[in-house]
Specification:
The protein is mainly α. The chain has helices at residues 2-40, 51-63, 65-98, 100-114, 118-128, 132-157, 161-169, 174-212, 217-227, 230-258. The chain is built from 10 helices and no strands. 26% of the residues are buried.
Length: 268
């Protein structure tokens, strides 16, 4: 009997762990939802609309193709801008890490760019460029480029020197050296940079679309603001939040697979 009880207890423990994890994952969002719903009972709908109305609008956006295309347009702009910034940041990061002249020229320049607000880049892009899509691409790249570059530089400079010398002693080919030494060292920093820049890009793209686009989530938010439609504004904001959460989840799953070679504590 004791063996049966112990087996049941061992099977129940993972269930309790999952339930506890799910509770703490959902608790903050439930708390926010309850507080908002209570506020909707005491304030007019244009300030705090009912969550039923908000999620009805969310469903309408998801099931209406003419509206859902705005969500897709914003998502593609975010991913396109991040991809462009990552590729350019990788080139600049390798140059900074390997050449002193590039370090002296590019590091202060990128640091200077980091201090320029996103709204200023929006104004500059409107003045400099004519095409809407190119404006948004420029804004996305220029605002996320420094973070990608500095993360890659930090990863390259943080490689273990003893391990580097040991790998070089085997006289590897360039491709083998990249896959065996450089990629494992840089990949965690790259994934972190993508996670950080994803949140920054989602905020920047809305600003860019607010003032320089005729489509996308930012443009739709501007329309809701002009109509004082708080339910619509929340519904469109949630579309962007859902996209960020989905892509963050994809990055987390990719990270689990990509860095599975890292050692783990025996206690974990």
């Amino acid at each position: 009997m004791s063996d049966v009880a112990s087996d049941r207890q061992s099977l129940a423990e993972p269930v309790f762990d999952i339930a506890r994890w799910a509770f703490w994952l959902a608790a903050p969002f439930v708390l926010i939802a309850v507080a908002w719903q209570v506020a909707s009972l005491f304030f007019p709908p244009f300030l705090f609309p009912s969550l039923i109305d908000v999620f009805a609008r969310v469903w309408t956006i998801l099931t209406t193709w003419s509206q859902f295309t705005s969500v897709l347009a914003t998502a593609m702009r975010i991913l396109g801008g991040l991809a462009g910034a990552f590729l350019l940041g990788a080139v600049l990061g390798v140059a900074i890490a390997n050449f002193r002249a590039a370090d002296r020229l590019l590091t202060p320049t990128l640091t200077f760019f980091q201090g320029i607000p996103a709204l200023s880049w929006v104004v500059f892009a409107i003045i400099w460029f004519h095409g809407v899509e190119f404006r948004i691409l420029f804004i996305m790249v220029i605002t996320t480029l420094p973070a990608f570059t500095f993360q890659i530089v930090g990863a390259l400079r943080g490689m273990d020197k003893d391990l580097l010398e040991m790998v070089m002693s085997f006289r590897p080919t360039r491709w083998k050296f990249f896959t065996a030494m450089v990629l494992p060292a840089v990949l965690p920093e790259v994934i972190t940079a993508w996670k950080v820049n994803l949140g920054n890009a989602s905020r920047v793209v809305v600003v860019a679309e607010l003032v320089g686009s005729s489509g996308g989530v930012g443009y739709q938010l501007l329309q809701q603001q002009q109509l004082f439609d708080m339910a619509g504004a929340l519904a469109w904001t949630l579309q962007l939040v859902f996209f960020v959460l989905l892509f963050q989840w994809i990055l987390s799953k990719f990270e689990q697979v990509a860095v599975r070679h890292r050692s783990k504590s025996e206690r974990s």
